[in-house]
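Replying to the earlier thread about multi-chain prediction with a worked example.

Input:
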Amino acid sequence: MSRTFLGLPRTLRRPDDADARHGTPDEPFGPVPHPQEPLRWGDDFPAAAKQTLKNDQLRRNLGHATQVIRTKRAAVVGEVPDWEALRDTGSAVKQQVMAQLPDLLQQLEENVVARGGVVHWARDAAEANRIVADIAKVKGADEVVKVKSMATQEIGLNEALADEGIAAIETDLAELIVQLADDMPSHILVPAIHRNRSEIRDIFLARMGDAPPDLSDVPRELAMAARAHLRRKFLSAKVAVSGANFAVADTGTLAVVESEGNGRMCLTLPETLVTVMGIEKLVPTFDDLEVFLQLLPRSSTGERMNPYTSLWTGVTPGDGPQEFHLVLLDNGRTDVLADEVGRAALHCIRCSACLNVCPVYERVGGHAYGSVYPGPIGAILTPQLTASTGGVSGHHDPNASLPYASTLCGACYEVCPVKIDIPSILVDLRAREVDADRSSRGVDPWKTAMKAASWVMADGDRFALAGRAATLGSGLGGRDHAISVAPPPASGWTRSRDLPAPPRQTFRQWWAAEHTAPVEQAGTVETEGDDR
Amino acid sequence: MRIALAATCLADTLFPGAPRATVRLLERLGHEVVFPTDQACCGQMHVNTGYYREAVPVIRNHVETFAPVADGEWDAVVMPSGSCTGSVRHQQAMVCRRAGLDDLAATAEAVSAKTYELSELLVDVLGLTDVGAWFPHRVTYHPTCHSLRMLHVGDKPLRLLRAVESIDLVELPAADSCCGFGGTFALKNADTSAAMLEDKTANVRGTGAPVLTAGDMSCLMHIGGGLSRQGTGVRTLHLAEVLASTREEPTPLPETTFSRPERPARTEATR
Ligand code: SF4
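Result:
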């Protein structure tokens, strides 16, 4: 969605790359091939980030793109006088939804069915994919057009359909770029944010099949090429597949918001529409949309209002798709709901504001998170969605490293339109991992260090002793008081940073020497003599 | 006022200049500072790393040490650290409750209600922006993430700095972006942390200021670690060290990023 080339950098090609422009169809554009599990691929976060950090081009692309979106967002949010009240309302509505989820889901089902739709319930990805494939087959479709959707990314629908001989065509421009490149998305809203214009031009020329040979990397030209390519697909497809931004329980209405209009084409032209939706996407009443349709576009694309908002309720005879299926997807969500702290991750409306402000995401990019949900929301959602298979607690599960992929700087919480306290959930997930690990017998240096530190730091006298011991190292740093080589795990630090040498006198030694305050305890005075 | 100082474990052990300056400043402003020696650490490191159970005794020690402030024995507790104040305010009671220690949680909340980060104490409680400081150097200021987004100190530290006589305060570009420290993040995700630090130190260097100041020694240790390694010669001073400086008793510029004049006042003389 979005203004198509939102934030894509203008001239990032290095001069010596000029020859690399003419991609061949075999050129491996995608750094990430399609994984077996869309919620768990690749190395753990530190190792994956180490790789992506080496890609200077990626860092420049991302740095530029996130900066552009951040600035736009800040400007349009700043002009809403009751923004904070809106956020509070959005958060409250989502809390209410989670508290009444089973009832609201049933209400939604009743209303969709009453308006001529068919509702399917899918426990997991495999069930959801099966349902969609069966519908397409019954309709005799070997091609479906798709509206950009995170839920279908999450279940790997395109690959599952391909296995059944059905081609899924992504119609969102950025999603199309990712699909043509045989790549994985790296951003919730701008899945090709890791690509710049000239890379996109290369991909189109090599993979689209009907791109004009003299295609330039001017955004308008690229968009026109995609438009011509997709128009034929819209007109021929019998089945469309979409996700949903919102579902209204008390009317059975579904909503998709977008910027390009491709979604509107998919939602109106084909005879059959299948919508795959996570069970958390509900709002109780139609009026609640008012809140979210203000929060979402300003937070995501930095627009006051998104260009296209499509709402539909069941089937309308003679207008739009004459067959409508709603697939309600669990895929780990009830596990998330069961956790008192972590469940707030289900409030997410996928605006991606948290990605755009995240200093970690900005450096490492989406692929380092090894999930279709990258960035801060990915770091709290992915482990929880995969918790039943070790996502939070598995010793060698790469997803268990995600809650540590944050400095807890709080930028995400500050921008989240539904006020998800991401830092607190990250910390809570760390605690869940630590607790799950308590029964394991293996020796973990972190565990040992934390236990020892707890003993020392729970007592003023023990801590004073430790401090005095540290001062023995005051000569370590030499003249500039800086230590530049240290054993693991501090070696990770000293690879690019010095450590201060301990001082010759701790603060409390100085205090004991300088003050005789009434609360002072007798034992501390000795330190003065100690120093001489 | 009678103000109890929570020096923070990091500054007590590695950066005594920050709490020393806090004492000097508050005493100069006419307040009595007490240092309850039972204190050690607020528990932030354990909590943020997920070791809630190990955090409990640490938090208990902090809360019990500073409990007298809730009974009015002291008027306030001051912490020269945004992240530690944030932990006291937003984490201690939660961890106690999780451990089923409701009474301790209640005491923690009572203590935290009277615990202030240094700029909060000066501006909100003491009603000051001009603390009578003199610091004739070019300085740039990094607003640490937790001061900014957990405590919402806003521009209080900057207001205090602007009022310092003879200071040349220059704006740090992209000041509000994280330096990449994040406690154990700097070790567990050392490469990502280093990439963030690189941008931060480049911005600091770009200001041409010989002094970087902030309200939190942990972030300053991190940024300083980079500045020291890069041989920039930029010194890191805690906000308190800048504000404590006067014409009569100026805070000297350290020779290098991490070096400090070791023995002030009496101890110096006794050597
Ligand atoms: S967590 Fe919040 S900020 Fe991030 S994508 Fe979801 S709604 Fe947006």
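Chain A has three domains: 10-34+104-331, 41-79+332-435, 445-527.

Feel free to reuse this layout for your own posts.
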